[in-house]
Amino acid sequence: MFELMFCSLLTILPDYLYRRYAQGKRFGKEITFFSIWYELRWGITGCLMLTVSLITMIFYFHPSTTSATLYYRTVPILPEGSGRVAEVNVGYSQAVKKGDVLFSLDSSKQRAALETAKRKIAEVDASLTTAQSDVIKADAQIEEAKANLQQAKDELDVKSELQRRNPGIVPQRDIEKLQVIVNQRQAGVDAATASRQSAALRVSTLLPAEKASAEATLAEAQVDLDKTFVRAGVDGRVEQFLVRVGDVVNQLLRPAGVLVPDGAGRQGLQAGFGQIEAQVLQVGMVAEATCISRPWVIIPMVITNVQDYIAAGQFRSGEQLIEAQNVARPGTILAFMEPLYKGGLEGVTPGSSCIVNAYTSNHEEISAKETSTGRAIALHVVDGVGLVHAMLLRIQALLLPIKTLVLSGH
Questions:
Q1: Which of 246, 333, 349, 352 is the least buried, fewest Cβ under 10 Å from its Cβ?
Q2: CATH class as words, domain 108-226
Q3: Does domain 75-106+229-260 have CATH number 3.40.640.10?
Q4: pTM value?
């Protein structure tokens, strides 16, 4: 309507002034309700053409959209396993810090495994003490065996010397028996030495390995026990946390709730513009937004990124071929925006719906020396008509509460 009124001042009004003062035609006489369409045909036709052209230029070079939202990502609250809730530490809605325990699962099985691992370590420690005693015992047995061996050798040497000095004084049979006893006691020394080595290896290698294995089992049991305590992964706020003691939760089918990280949905705004505006939207464009959760406020924004892909074109491979006509709605060009000034989004609730206008600026091209005068004038006109869109956005911001509260029918 505003564009039509503006264009009529440039077309219909001059046509009427010509008919009135140059041709002498007056309303109610030559110009009536039935003849006005003929008498002012040039002005009306020019007004319609100019209005359509102006609207097209405004909406193309200064795109607008109502598909704008402060999107934010939530963190699901999930245990690493599954189990029955034993204790809940937070309420329905509560701020939490990273590492805070949100709830805990029944841990009787994990505690039993942890206690078993502790007992196994104590058992290995006791075995190590026993093995050390066995080493001391083996040392004593070696000394005893060596003493017995030395005694047998001494007796053999004495009788052998007597036999050498006075043959026949000692029966040969006795010397052979003593030799057998020496060999037997030497074997006893070797057996005691081997026993001592076995006990030493048990102390130095086997039992430490068993203890390390038991400690690893203990650490694993402790990890399993810690998994029963579900903690907050980031600073944020839990919302709609309805888990209660006795509920069963698992990773696949029954998550416990969601955690909204601090600052989520408060850094930027995402807006979907029509595909025809893909060549106009550029990083660095100035934009303005007004949101339902903060009415009557215009928020200056700047486009920081434009997504290179349209979400409507994505597909997943399957057993059927893609049929293009099944895409019901054309996708949009997603633009990411941030407030032009610090604190611009304060008071805007994350997830709020917004209306966004983006404005094309050709100041650098107009200021360039190689730009012709005609093109500079045209670019001035393009930049100037952005004022119309800015006015429309402010009218929308003014009427938004009325439209929402009064005219929506709720």
A1: 246
A2: mainly alpha
A3: no
A4: 0.70
